[in-house]
Prior knowledge:
It is a single chain. This protein is 17% helix and 48% strand. By secondary structure, it is α+β, with helices and mostly antiparallel strands. It has one domain: Sandwich (Immunoglobulin-like), CATH 2.60.40.10. Strands 2-9-8-4-5 form a five-stranded mixed β-sheet. It has a four-stranded antiparallel β-sheet with strand order 1-3-7-6, with no helix packed on it. The protein is globular, with a radius of gyration of 13 Å.
Amino acid sequence: MSRKLAMLVIGATLLTLSAHSGTSSTFRITAVEPATVRVGSTITLKGENLTRDNVAGVFVSNASDDFPAPIVSQMGTRIVVQIPKVKAGDYNISIQVKRDVLIQPIRLTVRD
């Protein structure tokens, strides 16, 4: 699936999730701090509706793989995760909502 098509599917999924929840809520990441990290360090993801009831997992994703990032703490507007063992490079942050993994428009750089 092309990246453009994947982003369209994600947008449609977010709209569907919002419509089915009975509210105008969406599950999304709006910021990552810090945006450049090393493997094993933690990052804070800020966003909306990030409770355990909504977000079951977080991933560091590239064009071909999703790497699970262990959740350290989780609240409604933020999630702290540990960076998994990945190669240096640029990644997206993805969240798992039910069985779907949604790529977020947030970039992360992992360095050596």
